[in-house]
Amino acid sequence: MKKGFTLIELLGTVVILAIISSLVLIVTINILEASKKSAFKTSSLNAIYAYNNLLNLGGYENNSIDVENVLLPLENNNFIDGTLTFDQNTKIVTANYITDGTYCADGVKGYLIVVKGSCDLIDNYKAKELVANPSSVDIYAGDDYDLLTGVYLNNFKDTPLDVEINYSSTPVFDKNTVGTYEILYSVEYHGVTYTKTRTINVLYQGVNLSASPDSLTIYKDSTYDLLTGVALKDINNTVIPNTITYTSSPAFTTAAVGTYTITYSSVYKGTTYTKTRTIEVIYEGVNLVVSPSIVNLESGTSYTMLTGVSFIDKNGTTVPGTITYTSSPSYSNTTLGGYTITYGVTYRGTTYTKTRTMRVYQALTTYSYTGGSQTFDVIATGRYKVELWGAQAGSGGQGLCSGGLGGSGGGGGYIQAMVDLTAGESFTVVVGGAGGNAAYSGNYGVGGYNGGTNGASAGGVSGAGGGGGGATTFRTSSTTYLRANGGGGGGGGADGGYYRYSSGATTCGGCGSRNAGAAGGAGGSGASAIAGGAGAPNSCGATGSSGSGGTYYINTTYMTYVANTVGTKTGNGYARITYAG
After folding, report:
1. Are 400 and 556 in contact (CB under 8 A)?
2. Could you give the CA distance from residue 40 to residue 32 in angstroms, rounded to a whole number?
3. Does residue 241 have a cis peptide bond before it, meaning omega lies within 30 degrees of 0?
4. What was the pLDDT predicted at 54?
5. Which of 40, 167, 264, 508 lies 20 to 30 angstroms, CA to CA, from 395?
6. Is 381 exposed, middle or buried (0-12, 13-18, 19+ CB in 10 A)?
7. Taking the domains of the chain in order of start, what are their residue ranges?
8. What is the topology classification, in CATH, of domain 208-282?
């Protein structure tokens, strides 16, 4: 048996039919709406064509007309507002917000915008301008940047339209290369091409003005470029081409020693960068000069210690500085000897020193007879005059019994010579002693100190020989430089005659019995002895001979002869040494 539909099934069927009916209605309404919209668009286009034809026929002289005045048999020509305009350049007619009260159209043929409702809705779809905001962009080299940032096609509601925007760059944009790029944006929308340009400046990053080194020293009168080592750089130490200026306090010059503060500045993209540098101009080749380095000063003479001492640079310019000095041992111009004077001056943390030798000497040194050796120490280097006198010899004795006189002793020799001596050298000076005078018989004269020989004894009661004079010498321990020889002793005189009894007693007995006087002793010592005078002959009362005068010896390897005399010195010898400079 066939059943009927249940209530639920009936309700389901009704719902399905209702849905189908709704869909059919919606589709139908859309179709009708599309048809109406299409008809309005066609009418709008016809208005554009009609106005274009009128212009071609010369029907209107103006370039704008109210759309309701287009008097052509147009279907559905129910426009109530809007205008048509003609562009003389492009020869294009444009519909501007033409409406029939239900629909509104705007645009040109081929790109006509049609909306239902108020013409204000047109502004949602109508392009106003291509925007690139901001028009100038600064970015740092290496930073990422989207060239379409802030770029859009704006509608008349000032909201972006969904369109694809193209661009080109002059030169080709490179985010890593510093420079200025012109970006040209363009978009075609509804038959119109919109363009906009933007400037993008790719800037250096981490800009810094550097002056390396920031502190330096240069020499006086040298040439120096104050921009040396100064540059505007980025974070990668890349030099940025830019103008750098500077000021100096005080005004910079290498002609004046001093400290200068240089302030550098450079303006880059509206920002001023500054840097300071300290430059010290100093003297070059500074030197402490002490001239002369050796000063020979006669004892008791005043001397200013800073004489000839200066602190100068390589050009001889005086460098300011306090020069001090010390002496070792403590200096005294009355104490003979050598002194080391140490001068010092400090410049820029460095102490410069020089030494000078001061020699306080006695200009004239004399030596008399002492019976021993004496010393001459050379204090000052220089030339010296050395003078030596040998000692005189003794006279011969007189013979008894009114005998002859003994001969006189020879005088000591004299020698003068020059010699160059060096400080620190030491010499021995020996002054000769005078020879002794003789009496008679065995009472001979004793030889003088330093080489004088004894006189000879006499026979009987004749006069004995006088002693030879000693030599005066100037020598080292191993070498004789100079010697003045002593004189020769005088010869003894003959007796006047005598008689000897058997008891041994003697008495003067006239010239019947005589003895010759003894010869005088030889005077002097060294390489060549000076002969004494001869004794008197065996002749009653004969006189003895005089001794020879002293001569000299000079070692020409060291000494330079000046003058000499023979046999002029009486008494003991003598020596004199004079500093000649």
Report:
1. no
2. 12
3. no
4. 67
5. 508
6. middle
7. 33-124, 127-203, 208-282, 287-361, 362-581
8. Immunoglobulin-like (2.60.40)
Low-confidence ranges of the chain (pLDDT < 50): 1, 69-76, 521-528
Please state, in angstroms and as integers, the Cα–Cα distance from residue 245 to each residue in 203, 209, 216, 260, following that order: 21, 11, 19, 16
Using CA of residue 327, residue 332, residue 338, residue 343, what is the dihedral sign?
positive
Identical fold, 208-282 and 287-361: yes
State in Å, rounded, how far the first CA of the chain is from the last one.
170
pLDDT digits (tens, 9 = 90+) for 306-357: 999 999 999 999 999 999 999 999 999 999 888 999 999 999 999 999 999 9
pLDDT tens profile 414-472: 999 999 999 899 999 999 999 999 988 888 999 999 998 898 888 777 888 899 999 99
Residue pair 403/463 in contact by the 8 Å Cβ criterion: yes
Has domain 287-361 been given CATH number 3.90.220.20? no
pLDDT of residue 90: 75
Burial of 491 (0-12, 13-18, 19+ CB in 10 A): buried
Q: Which fold has domain 127-203?
A: Immunoglobulin-like (2.60.40)
Question: Is the torsion defined by CA of 467, 468, 474, 478 positive or negative?
Answer: negative
- Which residues does 61 contact at the CB level (< 8 Å), separation at least 6? none
- Please give the model's pTM, rounded to 2 decimal places: 0.56
CB 181 within 8 A of CB 236: no
